From TrEMBL:
The keyword Ribosomal protein does not apply. The chain crosses the membrane at residues 21-41. This is Vancomycin permeability regulator SanA. The keyword Ribonucleoprotein does not apply. Keywords: Membrane, Transmembrane, Transmembrane helix. InterPro entries: Cell_Envelope_Assoc, DUF218.
């Protein structure tokens, strides 16, 4: 049995057809770039360094994977920045948000242990076990933990999206983008952000509920009370 033959698409032969094809390609490129442009516009004046970020009660650290139960290097860099912000008095409480969808995978607890090793008291750390993606983490920070303002900590390729989404979720946000080695993971993350920008724009427009919402939790309020 012969394999079916696939015809290669034919390019338009007329100038008019070629012009329409070019216009369609350009329109597609513009539409593809709109979400990224929106993210840059929203987050443009809200990015800071750990040294000059405004003093804020809460820092939010987004999960970034575990290696053998320990924070991945990318996640460790985020947690190092959070510990520095706590030590310098720029934040009082750290909300760690990540994936705990399986018993054998617990990002928030691994993040908590790492932070306590680096000088952040356990009582100043609050865990969100249902931060399955950036939008879920931002919405839950607002609706579940009552966070109105926060410093967000992530790598540079992700921080703009985090700020844009938390702003859309009602959390007044500033972003601290931590340094990262330009390895395969960095390039993958940067490429992924191009695609994730489209989902982020849809989340900001349609504001879907997180995968898991649940009841309000007083963890952040209690931690801030001990800080006082």
């Amino acid at each position: 049995m012969r394999a079916p033959k696939f015809r290669r698409p034919r390019l338009p032969r007329t100038r008019r057809g070629q012009r329409r094809l070019v216009q369609a390609v350009m329109a597609g490129c513009v539409l593809a770039l709109l979400p990224a442009t929106w993210m840059y516009a929203v987050a443009g004046d809200r990015l800071r360094t750990a040294a000059d970020v405004p003093r804020t009660d809460v820092a939010v650290v987004f999960g970034a994977g575990l290696w053998d139960g320990e924070p991945s290097p990318y996640l460790a860099h985020r947690l190092d920045a959070a510990a520095e912000l706590y030590r310098t008095g720029r934040v009082e409480v750290v909300l760690v948000t990540g994936d705990n969808s399986r018993e054998d995978y617990d990002e928030p607890d691994a993040m908590r242990v790492y932070l306590t090793r680096h000088g952040v008291p356990d009582g100043r750390i609050v865990s969100d076990y249902a931060g399955f993606d950036t939008w879920d983490s931002c919405v839950r920070a607002k609706k579940i933990f009552g966070v109105d303002e926060a410093v967000l900590i992530s790598q540079g390729f992700h921080i703009r999206r985090a700020v844009a989404l938390c702003q859309a979720a009602g959390v007044e946000s500033y972003g601290v983008g931590v340094d990262a080695v330009h390895d395969a993971t960095w390039y993958y993350g940067g490429t992924r952000e191009i695609l994730a920008a489209g989902k982020a724009a849809l989340d900001a427009v349609f504001r879907p509920d997180p995968r898991f919402l649940g009841p309000q939790e007083p963890g952040v309020e209690r931690a801030l009370a001990t800080a006082g």
